[in-house]
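User: Could you go from structure to sequence for me? I need the amino acid at each position, not a summary. Structure tokens:
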């Protein structure tokens, strides 16, 4: 998928293909019915030609996925037979070849068992898509009814504009549109939830299947290390083979590794070119008010630091405004204290004048 963003464009070679050029195409590809039998082609085309129009494309996809499942079943059965035949062939060879091929047959047979498990999980993905197809088929009648009523109204308006049936049909059209809106909303919601669940089934099964096969391949290469492939001269005998216990232990270790594997412990993790937290922070900035300071500067990495009073210019402005308010409050308090003093002096002068008048 290197530099390929669509199935409609040709793929550029990957780094692995540039390092190790791929072999020529297999001789069995494209020969006679190599791309699929007549039954596969008939089922696929029939699914896209019958049934509700809304569900035809998804029906075709479901049928194609069924063909994929049957092909994988054939592959699993053939691989199982190949493992048995490998063990049978190695039985008549030297001790080391006989033991190694027998143990390799066990590993390849286990791969076929993993294929069977993968088929069962892959079928869950197909059945979930099938449920979306059934819902699309149930929505189609409401669309057809609305379109039929609309066509009748248009026909009557053209042929007999004064017909009383037009009003009745318009009322039916309103009800049909309401039913169609409900059905379309349900289809939209269920399509998204089911589609997400379906491909979660598929991708989880692919991760499990591929990583377990990778484990088996690793232990298979460990088995090959027990085989002495150094050349010998004519008449020279090879050293006696003593790897029976080691090969048996490799099979036991492989079985333990497969039994202990869990999806949470998967080794392969996606590496995204963007950070999820950057995207979330971008959303919060768009939805926040303009008074809220930005949490980061473009081009810099996100961290958990926040603006302090010394670093935040807006914080300094708020502090200065608070100091000015405090100064104004103190001045008002001083003025309030001075006003009562003036009133006391005036009262004393008035009392003195009244006493002088009384003595006179």
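Assistant: Here is the amino acid at each position, in order:
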């Amino acid at each position: 998928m290197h530099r390929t963003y669509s199935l409609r464009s040709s793929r550029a070679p990957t780094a692995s293909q540039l390092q190790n050029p791929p072999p020529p195409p297999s001789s069995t590809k494209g020969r006679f019915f190599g791309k699929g039998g007549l039954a596969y082609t008939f089922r696929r085309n029939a699914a896209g030609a019958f049934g509700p129009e809304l569900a035809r494309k998804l029906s075709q996809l479901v049928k194609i996925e069924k063909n994929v499942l049957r092909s994988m079943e054939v592959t699993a059965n053939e691989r199982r037979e190949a493992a048995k035949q490998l063990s049978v062939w190695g039985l008549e060879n030297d001790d080391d070849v006989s033991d190694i091929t027998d143990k390799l047959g066990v590993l390849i047979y286990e791969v076929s068992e993993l294929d069977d498990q993968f088929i069962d999980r892959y079928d869950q993905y197909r059945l979930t898509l099938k449920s979306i197809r059934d819902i699309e088929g149930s929505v189609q009648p409401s669309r057809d009814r609305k379109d039929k009523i609309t066509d009748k109204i248009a026909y009557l308006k053209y042929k007999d504009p004064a017909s009383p049936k037009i009003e009745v049909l318009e009322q039916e059209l309103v009800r049909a549109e309401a039913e169609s809106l409900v059905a379309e909303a349900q289809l939209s919601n269920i399509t998204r939830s089911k589609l997400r669940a379906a491909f979660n089934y598929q991708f989880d099964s692919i991760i499990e299947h591929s990583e377990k096969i990778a484990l088996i391949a690793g232990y298979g290469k460990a088995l090959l290390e027990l085989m002495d492939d150094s050349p010998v001269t004519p008449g020279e005998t090879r050293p006696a083979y003593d790897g029976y216990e080691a090969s048996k232990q490799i099979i036991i270790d492989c079985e333990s590794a497969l039994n202990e594997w869990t999806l949470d412990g998967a080794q392969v993790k996606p590496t995204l070119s963007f950070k999820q937290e950057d995207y979330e922070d971008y959303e919060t900035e768009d939805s926040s008010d303009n008074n809220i300071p930005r949490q980061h500067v473009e081009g810099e990495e996100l961290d958990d630091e926040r603006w302090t009073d010394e670093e935040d210019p807006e914080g300094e402005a708020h502090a200065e405004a608070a100091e000015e308010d405090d100064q104004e409050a103190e001045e008002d308090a001083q003025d309030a204290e001075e006003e009562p003093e003036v009133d006391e002096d005036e009262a004393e002068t008035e009392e003195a004048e009244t006493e002088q008048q009384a003595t006179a």
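One structural detail worth keeping in mind: The chain is about 70% helix and 0% strand.
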